[in-house]
Structure formats: C-alpha cells, structure tokens
Amino acid sequence: MTTTNLTIDLNADVAEGCGRDDKLLTIVSSANICCALHAGSPSEMLKTLQLAKQHGIRVGAHPSFDDRQNFGRSNHTLPDDELKAVLLYQLGAIQSLCDLVGVSLEYIKPHGALYNQAAKDAHLATVIAQTIKAFNPKLSVMGLSGSELIKAAQQHGLVAESEVFADRRYEDNGALVARSQPNAVIDNDDEALAQVLQMIENGTVTSINGKTVKVQVDSICLHGDSEHAEQFAKRIQTTLQQQGINIQATTHFK
Asked: What is the pLDDT along the chain (254 residues), one digit of tens a residue?
C-alpha cells in the first residue's frame, strides 16, 4: 500500500559516544542530544550540535539520571528538588552550547530509566513537566505514546510529542517491554520495518502477546547505539520514501 500526504519525524539519541552520529544525522529529522551525564562529554555535545546545524536537524535535549556507570538505565527515586537540580544542570549546559553554536533547543526527551519511570509514575512526570516549564515554557516534551509524561506535559500547557519505537516490543497496555526481559528489542529489520508502517498507517502496534494497541505517532525513535544503526536507518528512510511518507520534524518552537 502506498500512503500519501503523511509526514513523520524520525529521531535518534546522539552524542553518546557510541554510534555513527555523522551518518544518522543525514537521515533523521530530530536529534536527541545526550547531556553528558549518562554518556558522552561536553565536547561530544558540541560536535553533535555543530553537525545538527550543518544538516538542518531539529535539536532536543536528552537528559538522564546521573548514572554513567549504567548508561542511565538504572531506576532511581530522588527527592523532587534533587531531580529538578539534575534536570536543570543538564538543560542549562545544553542551552549554553546551543547558544554557542547558534541553534535552537526545541524539545526535551528524557533518557533511559528517567523516560521509562516517567511513563508510569504520574508524580515523577509532573515534576519533569514543571521543571521544563520553569526552564522554558516554549519547549515541547517528547515521551512515550499514552504515557504519564505526555499527560503531565499537556496538563501544564506544554506541547507534547508522542513517540513510538521502531525496534522495541510493546506490552498489552502500550508500555515498552523492559530491556531486562527476553525479546524486548526487535533485532530483525523486516519485523521492525513492518512495525513502523503499522504504527504510521494504522495508528496501532501489535503487543508481544498479539494484542492490537492504539498509539499516537508524532515521532519514531531510531536507536543509534546498535551495531547496524546506520544501515537500519537507511532502510527505514528508503521504505518511508517508497510509501510516500515524508520525513520531517514539526517544529512548535517560536
């Protein structure tokens, strides 16, 4: 089936020091810039921002818990003020580098455990939304489709961008299968491509148990830390182009 007049944002987690960011940024339309706590470095952030500017890619922050030893994937329970401090520390750093490079910081997408916990924990999601709004209310918030983070962003008057994943499997309730569980990640490109097209064209995803789950698809995440990330990104790009689906970020930032 050929689909026309559809536009989709493709985003990738970059500046983590473990991928081919230079190649990915020629394919995706949005770049989630690691803020140097879970991985990467200030110099990596700067270099990636310069690449994003060169390719005309929309820039977002990818803040995490202060958890470099576990790549930001370990759950934490922090007092509200401590969480706000960790977030503002990262947002201030990336905003300063964006100003240096001459690009706009347009959205925030939490990383790893912070992202997954905020998808389920309404209080955590609220603290994140409040912090982002206090930092810059023009920023949009990218979170898992149907998640508490999306709800909190909307409740606080922020633009919410619902994200889905090309290479992750889903639970019956729309949550991502935890990485600690078997088959959490789709390692077959054909299966991942079929999932992408189903999500875009039908607004649904098939859960790990075979249930059809509704999703809102504003942006699709491509992970940049896998061994064949560039190859897979190119396949998605080609497949979407063949289907008449345009890859383009929708900017809400003014």
From this structure: 445 568 999 999 999 988 688 999 999 999 999 999 999 999 999 999 999 999 999 999 999 999 999 999 999 999 999 999 999 999 999 999 999 999 999 999 999 999 999 999 999 999 999 999 999 999 999 999 999 999 999 999 999 999 999 999 999 999 999 988 999 999 899 999 999 999 999 999 999 999 999 999 999 998 766 667 788 889 999 999 999 999 999 877 66
Q: In the chain, what's the furthest Cα-to-Cα distance?
A: 51
Q: 89 is written with which tokens?
A: 């520390």
Residue from 28, 67, 70, 66 nearest 48 by CA: 28
Alpha helices in 60-183 (DSSP H): 80-101, 112-120, 122-135, 148-155
* Angle subtended at Cα 212 by Cα 161 and Cα 75, rounded to the nearest 5 degrees: 55
The structure's pTM equals 0.94
Token couple for 119? 């998808």
Owner of token pair 């910081």: 105
Helix (H, G, I), strand (E, B) or coil at 61: strand
Distance CA 61, CA 109 (A): 6
Nearest to 229 by CA among 192, 176, 179: 192
8-state DSSP, 134: H
Q: What are the domain boundaries of the chain? A: 6-247
Question: To which CATH superfamily is domain 6-247 assigned?
Answer: Glycoside hydrolase/deacetylase (3.20.20.370)
Total Cβ atoms within 10 A of residue 81 = 9
